[in-house]
Amino acid sequence: MGSMTKSDNDITVVHVMRHGEVENPTGVLYGRLPGYHLSELGRRMADRVAEHLAERDITHVVASPLERAQETAAPIAKAHGLEVATDQRLIEAANVFQGKTFGVGDGALRRPANWKHLTNPFRPSWGEPYIDQVVRMMAAIGVARDAARGHEAVCVSHQLPIWIVRSFVERRRLWHDPRKRQCTLASLTTFTYRGDRIVSVGYSEPARDLVPAHLLAGAKPVRGASKGYGA
């Protein structure tokens, strides 16, 4: 039997967090557009998660470059005396419907101009390929793991990339019903590593009581709400 190295026993925890609620009065799918900040409720969600993680051994905090992710990460980093690092690979998925309304009951699916983007849900045809999201998210999470080796890290990202990378790790198909993503606002999808190998995946919602009921996983869609394609 070979000798055991230190890295074989190292436990590192990476919490991949979805940002809090965003101020979006016109209800557009904001995607990667700049200028979308946390709402007052979103800031409360971020503070709640910071409180939840205050006693954890967090040594590294990193976020998507988008404002809502940076603002969500800020109170967590502050609680641990850290600066928020930025990793472009944690960004929201690219989407051709960015800047448009695309929700239940708004007629988007009946517009002929949109049909060409809806032909292949398995790739998907309306945006960044799922496998590309897996590659970049796994790389970003791996860098965070290395930065916090033996401790814990927090990566703040967005719903679709988080759900896709979790699905990959848990060996589920990547195409899915967007209404059934288990990735509520300000939720934590937690990957525990032994050395460089993921040994468990967890999920928690420290701010669940602050999340509007229609935005919880599995909730009935609300007419006009552009929930379905990630945030």
UniProtKB/TrEMBL annotation:
GO terms for molecular function: phosphatase activity. It comes from the Bacteria. GO terms for cellular component: cytoplasm. PANTHER family: BROAD-SPECIFICITY PHOSPHATASE YOR283W-RELATED, PHOSPHOGLYCERATE MUTASE. This is Phosphoglycerate mutase. It comes from Streptomyces sparsogenes DSM 40356. The lineage of its organism: Bacteria, Bacillati, Actinomycetota, Actinomycetes, Kitasatosporales.
